Amino acid sequence: MAQLMGSMISLEAKDLGKRFGRRRVFEGIRFRLENKGSLVISGRNGSGKTTLLRVLCGLARPTEGRAIISHSGKELTPEQRRNLLGLVMPDLEFYGELTAMENLLFLSRVRGSNLTRETIRERIGWMGLKDRDDDLVFSFSSGMRQRLKYAFALLNDPRVLLLDEPAANLDQEGAALVHQVIDSQKAKGIVVIATNEQSDLRYADQNIHLGD
Amino acid sequence: MQTRTSTWATKSAWLLVKELKSEFRTRYALNAVLMFALTTLVVTSFSIGAFALTPRIASSLLWLVIFFSSMSGLAQVFIKEEEAGTANLLRLVAGPDTVFLGKLLFNLALLFMLELIVVPLFMVWMNVSVLDLWLFLSVLLLGSLGLVCATTIIAAIVSKARAKGSLFAVLSFPILLPLLIASIDGTRLSMEGEPLSAGWGDVRLLLSYLVVMFVASFLLFDSVWSE
């Protein structure tokens, strides 16, 4: 896996389409991002931005087309995908009965990584949750949970980072932190942002507007 | 840079540890299972009164208590993930094989905990004795393993439905019927003092059920778990 970290990575959508029953959410989505590309997906509520992100990260199956993450032209296995992806989205919830540290330690171990507690504590600290790593997630506010989602998404130094409403629930300081994360990710990998905020369009190398 | 050396079994063990930790903090399934089992035992004990149970009735009652108690708790393993919204988190980091094995091990631990309390209590309160311990333990072990394999995959299926609670028992009963019949019969033989060889037919049936159910559940799980 280590050799994948520094080499060419691409995210490609080939005529992606998704239906729920008879209702078509989107169709014919095509794009290709390589190494350091960014894509902003915009559109009104219910236009399918979150669904598209779910398809890209493998949480949902497309009804048409394919979403492919490749390394040097070779498609990655689901396990390799899991190790290279980071995702932040509103309907991602942590185990409330576990502490922030227990959550991230469990998630990293199940993913197959052996990050130390110190490293995880450091990552939690980066997201402004210093000294809260041993608190139960039940006691976290929505903003703190959003920060923890970033700590989780960045835990494995992802090559592909997918963000749905990146600054949701965050205060000004949190939003600034997110902008830093996006800038830093743009410099080293692929970032896909689903957003309603016009200001997020400044990150776009490519833009897809859904619901037209 | 971290290395990734964990095997499928190690990852499943981490999932089991997380499940146990969560369970002991929330008592989500444990309380339901134990309360149901104790209530059923007490009600059965009062209704039997001073009557001596025949092995046929005693073995049926024992497996009824185990079946209905497990119905009240084993489904929670997936339902709580879907209801709490943590299922997506798990899908992001773990493969379906890891999730299935981890959840299956947790359900097995839960059922063994239940049996550790219920079986001795049943024997004492109902004044039932087991004359062939090896046959009894073989049937109990294989019956429990088969029960857990079947209920784990059914729990994954019903976790996506609306009427989760009722659907679980309704779906489970026909699938578990062969297992229950063989378990009841094997337990009866052990209470009558028949040797292991007399119950060999039931043991073989339970073993076959376990293998078929494990393989089928394992193969089916990916399509049930993934959206």
Describe the protein.
The complex is a heterodimer of chains A (212) and B (227). Chain A is α/β, with parallel strands linked by helices and 212 residues long. Chain A has a single domain, classed as Rossmann fold (3-Layer(aba) Sandwich). Chain A is 33% helix and 28% strand. Chain A has helices at residues 2-5, 49-57, 78-84, 100-111, 117-126, 142-153, 172-188, and strands spanning 9-20, 23-34, 38-43, 64-71, 74-75, 85-88, 160-164, 190-195, 206-210. In chain A, the strands form 2 sheets. Chain A has a 5-stranded parallel β-sheet with strand order 6-7-8-3-9, sandwiched between helices. A 4-stranded antiparallel β-sheet of chain A has the order 2-1-4-5, covered by helices on one side. The longest helix of chain A has 17 residues, at 172-188. By secondary structure, chain B is mainly α. Chain B has one domain (8-225). In chain B, helix 6 runs antiparallel to helix 9. The two termini of chain B are 32 Å apart. Mean pLDDT of chain B is 90; it is low at 1-5. At the A-B interface, helix 3 and helix 4 of A face helix 1 and helix 5 of B.
